[in-house]
Each structure stands twice: as structure tokens, then as C-alpha cells.
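User: Can you help me understand a structure? I only have the sequence.
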Amino acid sequence: MSWRFILVGFSLLLGFDTAAQMCLKAASTGALPLEFSLAWIVRLLHQATLYGAMAGFIAAFVVWMALLRRAPIGPAFAASNLDIVTVLVASHWLFGEHIGWPQLAGTGLIVAGVACLAVATGGDAPPP
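Assistant: Let's start by predicting it. Here is the structure, written out as C-alpha cells:
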């Protein structure tokens, strides 16, 4: 098993997941105001970023399936949740969203959890 493959794979996964979430946020913002009507659905379907979000989620799914074949499942699942951190940072950077102490504390807990699982597995990889 190649750790380079896993690192590149997780980087791609985080990138695709983050991009998809940002596209989805842009699409939903562009379709405002929210209302339960056909007009709102049509407005949403006219948002190009909605299709970017779909493409990003499909790409993330393909990368995730490839990673599951080679990466240890515990750390892989934990690392897949790092997109919460990247989405937080990207939302702050792209949309000017506020990052407060609760978000920073949650980010720290997520990163600590991923680190604990990585240490607990001892860096062992599954057989090829």
C-alpha cells in the first residue's frame, strides 16, 4: 500500500467535498428567498453552482470508494470528516462567515480525534 496514494487521495477527497459544499452554499444563496413553490425550484435549478456541487459530490464519492480499498477504515472514516474543518475555513474566506470560539473548539476536537485514531492504528496499513 502506498501512503502517497492515501495522502493524495485524502487531499482530493477534501478538495472535492469542500468545493461541492461551497457550490451548494452558493446555489442556495442564489436561489433565495426560500419558499415552497415551483418558482423557487426553478430558481434553484438555474443556479450553475448547483451542478458544480453535484459534480463535486460525485467526484468525492469516486475518490472515497478508491480510498476504502486501500486505507485503514478507522482513520479513513475519521479523516473523511476533516471536510468540516475545510468547509469552515472556506466559508470564512469565500462568504465572510464568522468563526467563533465554538467553531474553533469543534475544529480542535475533530483534528484531535483524527490524530488519536491515526496514533491508535500505529500507522499500520491493511495488506494489499
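Now, to help you interpret it: The chain has a mean pLDDT of 86. The two ends are 6 Å apart (CA to CA). Let me know which part you'd like to focus on.
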